[in-house]
Every structure is written in structure tokens, then in C-alpha cells.
Amino acid sequence: MDTSAILGPPTAGDLMHDDAEFGRRLRQLRRTRDLTQEALAQAAYCALDTVKKLESGRRRPSRQLAVQLADVLGLDATERAAFLAAARASAAPDAPDERPAAATASPTQRTQSNLPAQLTRFIGRERAIAEVQGLLQRARLLTLTGSGGSGKTRLALEVGAAVIPIFADGVWLVELAALADGALVAETIATILGLPSSSQPARSVLLQYLRDKRMLLLLDNCEHLIQVCAELAEALLRACPDLHILATSREGLGVAGETIWPVPTLQLPDPEAQLTPAELATFEAVQLFIDRAALVSLGFALTASNAAAIRQICTRLDGIPLAIELAAARVKTLSVRDIATHLGDRFHLLTGGSRTALPRHQTLRALIDWSYQLLTEPERIVLRRLAVFAGGWTLAAAEAVCADDAIDAQDVLDALTRLVGKSLVVLDPRSDARRYTFLETIRQYVAERLEDAEESAAGRTRHLDYFLSFSEWYAPCLEEIVGFLGEQVGPQPGADGSVDRAAFITRLADDLENIRRATDWAAEMGRIDEGLRILVAAGSLFIIRARQNELLARLRAMLEAHAPPLDAHRRMRAYMGIVYVYHRQAEFDQGRVWLDRAESLLAQIENPVLEMGLLHLRMYDAQMRGDYALAHAYLEQQQTLALAHNYFGRSQAAVEDVLIDQRGLLLLSEGDYQQAKQLLQLGHAHQIKHGNLFASTALARFLGYALLNTGNVSEAAAHFRESLVGNFSLGDKQAVAACLSAWAAYAIVQGDLVRAARLFGASEALQEALSTPLVALDVVQVQRNVARLRQLLPSPERDDHWAAGRAVSLEQAMDDALSSDAFEQKERQGGRSQDVQAGLHQPLD
Q: pTM for this structure?
């Protein structure tokens, strides 16, 4: 509320009023803010009796207390000037004063700090305090940056309190949030330091006073006065060699010699970690929620029943302290489960800030509005258009999606750089590449702004177009990954003919969320053809990340959603992708339905590469049904087709490599381990040479089985190790589960039946967690080895160790498989090992 109409502007007469006049002014201001005397005293860190005496005119305020009262009352620049002038008038030398004379001495004789006492506990961040303290002793200008509500001010206050002994002339807090006029910054500092009024400019007075002082100035909330703060800080630091400045701002001041320290959000648990309530309570964000919730709901505590909801709240609020405090304040009216449920509408939910806080700290929306209003128009355009991304983006993607007639592509980099500097966009710490992302709270806010600007549809279209081009260029073709030839033009091979498919898979994985969003928007906008193209191109990524059920659902939904008939070629490729997923799930009856549909389209397409892929799928279906003669016939048809079409314009060696791999795997299924070993060794070497990590790690596992069954145990172990480590690096957890079963087979041969049971259990648990079974080729081997284990290890003991394996983490299971004990068993139990190996080749009961 503007109180100038009530109080009138300051006049010369105001400056001559006594303490009673100041008391009247203070009382009126308090009442217009709907504050009780007790609330004002608590917020200003003084006694209730002090407020009563001030308002009754029986006491005059110190300069420090006057500033604190002005801050609490949230006075604008005009009101603040009148208020502080009235305070100075009431504190004239000839006015009555109940303080002892020593309290009115010069600033250097007063207490060397005006840092306020805190009303709540400071949670965590011990390492942050220590690091900032260390930097402050080396850097004369240290700026703490971070998004709104990230805890910059509170951290600065904690550091300031800790370093008071280092600065002989004190640590002084200068709160700038309420200042609207940059011209008042120097005057505000002078007032806080207790400097007398002067006809000289406040800046000159400060330079003269601070020239020989060893002091720390804590300039809080500089972002809206950034230019003035930068200029004043540079001038002060140049003239005052022992002065240090600790600033807080949503962006750096941009002064020579400045050290910028981004304030991180509070520590959060790993999303995938399984934690007990006690373990969860060790994380800073959770500790803050519990502490603040207990203030409004006596007896509140973390329990087994509310732990999941508290974890969800803290994670979804990105560990932002202010947001967590606002959420905790809702505990007095809502359960934590209700709070977690309503976070989708967090801007309406999180509104219960302190009455005495700055207006922009009272609601989550106001907090971000403040930052948004400080942006230039180009920055606002880029910021809101970035809302179309999911899970982060690169500069190239930002340029493609944000640029149009309103903003040039070359200007996007400058805007993006400034947005990072202003803590509205963050560099993604999870990616080795230079990628950017939002905190989820910022993402929701800018998405609203995008809708308000009516730019959502255009942004979605540019996003879809970019990720269509992106996925078709960078994605390893679904056909190439799964073992038959692809059609797409993509990254060119290196000088040695290799393509680093692992790197492309990793690159694609970074944008999995964007690929999902692009296909969703393709369906919404009726651009079914483009949606299918993205899914087919990026299908390998869904497979490798054990998202094959999702891929299947998306492909089928896209096919079923179209109104006009789709291009037969596009439909054929989608059908083949569906068949491949059904094959990986061992749902061969369903696969055959879609195989027949694909085959019916083949005559319309007349594409020999797709015909080759269809023959491969037919061969695999026959192979897994045990019809090996038919499978070999399909393999020969592929060879004939390749010759007839001059290897489809590719090198003969590349096509032959594909056929060698297929023949080796077919022989493995038949149990012809000797011939399978020879072909798989050749195919494995070729895939390593060409950099296809997905194929080479799969072949390494199957080659390991062939070696294990031909008595080459140590070589089998080496290939199982290669497959497990390689697939884990790819993120292919379905293959990791298969590798754990392969290591179980190795343990059986080594005579370590207990380890085998544990590893089978771990593999089974991982498959269930993924809702994804092993591929049929692995299942054949696993069934054989599980049957062998049942023969060799009695049921109660086997079941106990199997259950123990199901209970371990993935990392523990991998350590179990790769531990040196597995290699030492052969020497320690040589006799038993030979017996087991001999038994491995006996017929099963």
C-alpha cells in the first residue's frame, strides 16, 4: 500500500519533529501493513517492549534498527527516505536518549556487524559455507548467483557471520531488494555504516571512509540494480585495498576480478536409489522440509508412510529452498500426499509465504515473475520458446526452435548465454556434451508464458521438424542395430570404415524425452507420417534403453490413429519394427500377424533392402520355433537376394558380415557350438572393427556360450566380461540381465553353484523391474543352465541363494559376476570343476 497519501511527503518540518512524531509515523506504517506490535518486533529482531517504546515516543531508534524496520515494512524509495530522515531527526544529539553514552560513539567503536539474528535453523550446506569462506579470503569480489529462492541470501548471511573475526572493521549487510532507484545504493550503504549526512555525493563519502578499512560489505539482491552495483563495487574495490564485497544476485556483476559462485539447489536423493526413511532424512532438501513442516505442525516427522510423498515434493521442487519452505507451510492444512499430488499446479499451491517477507518471496509465481520482468524482450522470447523442449537441449536445437522472424538464429546464442548467467537456464550436469535444461519449476512457468504469447503451436511445429531431421540423421538405423540392413543416410564412416554407433546411441539418449515429445505432438497435429519416421529412426534407442513396450505401443497407436491411408513404404517399416519388438518379447504368434501384413505390402513397395529385412525376420521366427531347415532356407534366400541386387549398392563385405552373424546365431540355437564358435568369432571381430558396440557386445555374449560349451572356459569368461561391461555402458539393462545369466552359467562350470543361484536370481529380478524378458536366443541358454543348476544344487539351498540374488542392487550383482573369485574358483576347486564341466555335456533328465 502506498502510504504517502496518509503520511504526506517529507518536509523540512518533519525533520524537526521529536521522538513522538517518529512513533506516530511508525505506528501508522505498521497498521497499514496489518502487523501487530509483536509481529513487527519479531521480524525486526528486536524486543516487543522496544516497539512499544518507539511508538509511544519514549525511545528513539538506532540507525541500524531504523533500517531494519524500514526493510520489514517494505517501504518504497520515497517512503524509506522520509522514514529514515524522521529516524535521524529523532536521534539528534540534543534529543533525550536512554542509551549509555558509549553506544553513541563513532561507527568504528560500535559492534562490527549488522547481520540479523535468524529465526529458523540453517539446514545443511556445510561444504558450501566452507568453500565460499575460502573463496572470500582470496577474492575481493565474490558473487553468489542462483535462481530465485535458491538460498543465496541465507548462505551469504551464514558466511558473513562466520568471517566476522577476519574483518577488523566489520561485516555489514546492505539489503537492496526494496530499492527501486539505483542512485540510492551508495546512500543506503552510507546510512547503514552510520556515516553522517554530507553535502558531498554519497559515493565520494564512501570512498573516503572505506579507504583504510578492512571490511566486508554484503550487497544482497543486486540483480535489478546490476549496472549501478557493478560500477560502485568496482570503484570501491579500486580505491579501498582492504575492502571485500560479497554480493548476491541472479547474475554476476560483470566486474574485472569478480569470482562467481553458483549456489546449488539443496542436495536431493538419486531418483533410482532405494532408501529407508532414515537414509532419506540425511538429504538437505528433505531435512529442510521436515524442519519447516514441524514449525507449523507440531510433532510432524518423517515416517515410513509419508517418506515417498516427501521425497516426491523435494525432487519435483528441484531442491529449491524457498519452494520447499512454501510447500512445508501447507502441512498445516494438507497432507504431504495431497501436497505432492497438487504440485502440477504449484503456482496456485505455493502461496503461503511470510507476511513480512518481500512480496516476491511470498508466492512461487511472484518469485519467478520478478526475474522474468527483469529480462530484455529478446531474452523473454527465447526463454518462453525453450519451454517446448523436454529433458534439455543443445545450442543447435535452440537455434532451430527459437528462431523466426522475431529473432535471428545467430542471436539465440547471446540470449541463451545471458539466461544461463541470470540463473533461469542451467547447464545440464548429467551430460558430457554442452546441453542446457530448466529446473522443473522454471519449465512450468515459461510454458505458461508460451501459451500466453500464443506461440505454442508454432514452437511445437519447429520442435517436431528439428527432431525429425535429427533422429533420421543421427540415429543408428533400427535395421542396422538389430542385424539387417538399413536404408537411411546418416553419419558417414571414418577412414577405417567404422561408425561409432555407441556415440550416436549416447547422443540420442540425451534427447529421448524430446523424441517422445516430438512423436506426441506429431500425433496431436495429425502428422502421422513424420511421427512414424521418428519412431522408426530412433527405434533402436527405445530397444537399448529397455523401452521396447513403449516403442510397440507408440508404433501401434500411430498406425491406428491415421485417417487417410499411409504411404505403403512408411507402413512397411513400421510393421517390421513391430515384428522385431514382438520377437524380442518372444511373442512369436503376434509377430507372425504383423509379418503377414508386412509381406502383403511388399509387392507394392519393390524395395530389395526391405525384402532382405523381412527375410531376416522370417528366418528368426523359424529359428525360434525350432524349424531350422526353414530358417536356413530363409538365410539362403537373403544371400541370393543380395547377389541379385549387387549387394544393394553397399560393399560385399558389409552385407556378408550381416549374414555371417545370422548364420552363427542360427548354429548356436541348433547346438552346433563348434561351427557357431568359428562364425561368431569372425562376426564379433568385424563388429568391433566397425565400431558397432551394440552388435559386438551381443555377439560377445553368444560367443561366450559357444566357447563355454566347447571347453574354452577362460575365453568364455573374457567375452562375458566384455558383454556385461559394454552393455552396462550402453545402458542396455535387458542385455545386462542376460549377461548376469551368462555369468551364472560360467559359475556352474566353475563349480560355484551358490554364486550361480545368486546371479540367476539377480537376472530374474532385473527382468521383472524392467517388465522386459530376455530375448529368445538367451532364453534357450538360460533354460538349459537353470535345469543343470537344479540337478546339482538341492532345492532349499538353491532357493535361498536365488532369493538372496533377487534382493541385491544391480551394482552388487555386477560386482558379484565380475569379482576375481569367479576366476579363482577353477584353481581352488579344480576337481569339482572338471566334474561339473563333464556333466554339462550330459543329457538332461
A: 0.71
